[in-house]
């Protein structure tokens, strides 16, 4: 009987221990709710100016460098400007030499005097013959001597004019002036160095753009090669078979140092979109032809909202419906 009571007591203690362990296993600890933080962007209202970028490449095939080696020349006139189209033989740069000018003037003076003397002796010779006297003076020798001197003088005049002409710079081919040494405008130059560059061929740049780009003839644009910015002017436009446009540009800035293989990048501002609502493009998702954003409510929770969109302008997209100015949406 005592054994039974003992085993019953042990059994009850065992059940009591199991009950306590099971109670500890079903304890659940609840944590407070935490909102997830997202980067947001605000819906804005205002105006956007779309820009389009395109690349320009040179169509020219040859560069002609003009220089002089005589250090005693004086600049008389710079006859062209950067961007001017020239024809073969056109005067580009005029020099003058005081020594050559004085020499030419002296030769021309001698030539005029000889002409007058020859004319004078011929009149005297004719007058003597008309008198039919026995004391006729022979002026033939004086006239012949003057004529020989006149031939030599005229030879000197031609040679001096040729030297003066060689001191002028004329265009060797049809082309466009793409560079002029700035020192020329100040009346100085460095003998043996390039004073002016003529780009032959078309001398222009070309760029292929989307058909939506509209650049009227004469439009001035800016293009850069990474370190320098240049100005070019639209000369003509062509339609291509693929629907795109091909524009041609003439340099306005000095571009003589730009290599033929250099690619320039230009940015052109299109018509401003006024009084529109817009948001960052990264905030808008597309699914099945429809557009959605994750809009934040007053309590900070996000809900999906369908929107209608317009054109993309840089990093923004125009919102035409579904959002109001000042609302916040998830940025990514």
Q: How does this structure look, described?
A:
It is built from 4 helices and 21 strands. With about 325 residues, it is an alpha+beta fold. Strands 2-16-20-19-18-17 form a 6-stranded antiparallel beta sheet, with no helix packed on it. A hairpin with a 4-residue loop joins strand 12 and strand 13. Helix 2 packs antiparallel against helix 3. The two termini are about 80 Å apart. About 5% of the residues have low confidence.
The ordered string of helix (H) and strand (E) elements is HEEEEEEEHHEEHEEEEEEEEEEEE
What percentage of amino acids are in beta strands?
35-45%
Helical amount: 25-40%
| Overall radius of gyration | 46 Å
Structural class: alpha+beta
Apparent shape: rod-shaped
For the record, give the distance between the C-alpha atoms at the N and C termini, rounded to a whole number.
79 Å
Low-confidence stretches: 18-34
Number of DSSP strands?
21
How many distinct helices? 4
Q: What's the rounded overall pLDDT mean?
A: 83
């Amino acid at each position: 009987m005592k054994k039974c009571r003992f085993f019953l007591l042990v059994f009850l203690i065992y059940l009591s221990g199991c009950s306590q362990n099971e109670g500890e296993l079903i304890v659940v600890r609840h944590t407070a709710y935490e909102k997830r933080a997202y980067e947001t962007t605000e819906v804005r209202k205002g105006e956007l100016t779309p820009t389009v970028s395109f690349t320009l490449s040179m169509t020219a095939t040859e560069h002609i460098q003009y220089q002089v080696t005589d250090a005693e020349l004086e600049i008389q006139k710079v006859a062209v400007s950067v961007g001017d189209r020239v024809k073969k033989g056109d005067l580009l740069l005029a020099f003058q030499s005081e020594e050559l000018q004085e020499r030419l003037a002296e030769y021309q003076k001698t030539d005029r005097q000889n002409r007058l003397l020859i004319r004078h002796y011929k009149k005297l010779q004719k007058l003597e013959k008309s008198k039919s006297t026995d004391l006729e003076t022979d002026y033939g020798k004086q006239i012949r001597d003057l004529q020989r001197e006149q031939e030599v003088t005229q030879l000197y005049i031609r040679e001096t004019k040729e030297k003066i002409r060689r001191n002028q710079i004329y265009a060797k081919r049809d082309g466009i002036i793409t560079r002029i040494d700035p020192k020329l405008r100040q009346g100085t130059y460095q003998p043996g160095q390039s004073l002016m560059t003529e780009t032959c061929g078309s001398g222009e740049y070309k760029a292929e753009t989307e058909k939506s780009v509209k650049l009227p003839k004469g439009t001035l644009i800016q293009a850069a090669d990474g370190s320098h910015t240049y100005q070019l002017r639209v000369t003509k436009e062509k339609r291509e078979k693929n629907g795109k446009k091909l524009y041609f540009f003439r340099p306005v800035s000095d571009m003589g140092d730009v290599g033929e293989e250099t690619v320039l990048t230009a940015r052109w501002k299109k018509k401003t979109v006024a009084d529109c609502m817009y948001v960052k493009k990264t905030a808008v998702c597309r699914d099945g032809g429809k557009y959605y954003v994750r809009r934040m409510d007053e309590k900070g929770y996000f809900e999906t909202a369908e929107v209608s969109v317009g054109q993309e302008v840089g990093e923004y997209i125009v919102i035409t419906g579904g959002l109001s100015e000042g609302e916040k949406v998830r940025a990514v």
